[in-house]
Every structure is written in C-alpha cells, then in structure tokens.
Amino acid sequence: MTKAERVRKNIKESAVNLFGRLGYEKTSVDQIARLARKAKASIYYHFDSKLSIYRDVMEDEFRTLRKSLEDVRERCTEDEAECLSEYLMVRMEEMLKMPIYANYMKDRIVNHTLGEVSRTVRSIRKDFDEWEYRYFRHVGEVGIRKGVFSDRVYPDMFARMLVNILKGLEIQLFVTDDRDALRSTYEAMVEILIYRNPALVVCRQANESQNDKE
Length: 214
Known about the structure:
Elements: H1 3-22, H2 29-36, H3 40-46, H4 50-75, H5 80-95, H6 99-111, H7 116-145, H8 155-175, H9 179-195, H10 198-213
Helix pairs in contact: 1-2, 1-4, 1-6, 4-5, 4-7, 5-9, 6-8, 7-8
C-alpha cells in the first residue's frame, strides 16, 4: 500500500467513525481531519467534498453487503429453500453492521432528510436493488421450472414484491434496540415465508433424500 493509499484509508476510517455516530449533517470535514490527524488540505487533496467522502464510505458498506450475499449464492446452489433462507438471514446480519446507512435511515425517518444526501444514497441503493431484483427473479424462474412455485407466481412480480418487503423491514432493523427480539422474530418470519410453503418443503425433502443416497 502506497503512502497516498494509507492516507486515504485513514481518512475513510475516520469518516466511518463520525458518519456512523453523528450522521452526515453533524459531521464536518474539520472533524474528519482532526480524527485522521491530517490537515484539512490533505482531506481535499483526496476527496472533492464531504459528500464525496460520504459516497465513498457508503458504497463500501453496500459493496461489503453484496459480497457477503454473493458468497451465500455461490456456496448454496441446490436447495432453493435453504439458499433463500440463508440469504435472507445473512442480509439482515450484514445490514446490522452498516452504521452509516443505519444512521441515514434513522435521520430520514425523524427529519425526513432530503437533498443531495438522499440523492446520493438513492443512487447507491438503486444499484444494489437492481442486483438483488435480478437474483430474486432468478429464484422465481428456477422455482417455477422445478415445480417449487405454481404457475400463479410471476417471477418479475415475485422479485419486485420481495425487494419492497425487505426494504420496508429495514426500517425496523435500524429503529429497534432489542436485537435479540429482532433476530428471533425475523428468523421466524423467514421460516413462515419459506418452510411453510408445502412445495418448498417437499423440494427440500427430495434434495435431502438425494444427498443421503449419494
């Protein structure tokens, strides 16, 4: 790692600390510079503005989330029910590790945050939502092909509804202090969604039987 890369990394780590605790509005470039122990001019050498720092560290959070979910998809390819269940649980756990996005969501709920910050977050979020939509549509298409879902399920609508449901649940993730209750209830909801679908249960049992034979 070069000196410039180390400085940039230090600036971003300081920004994550402040944006995660104080939010965008209450964090200043001066504060980031002091925490990073760098001159303010050094901050502006590496970043155009406070907003550009914010965008960079927010993109890092969503990049980490996506990487974790891609790992789930790569190691879980046979059992659709198990794979989707693990995906949804990992999604929740990883989102709980996103302090900057969590602070943004809380601020948006309380103060109805608008303007450049919201536009920045929406553009980052749009990329993730489109990626997730494509995955859920794929799940729907494979589920229909394997008989897991009936022909009443339209893959496009299945994907859109699931994306919107999860986005709605995110609000609860960030306003709830009781994490144990949150995890327990979320897990129960995933079980209801997946394992109480008779077709998914039959499909899972068939996969387990095939694995036993092998």
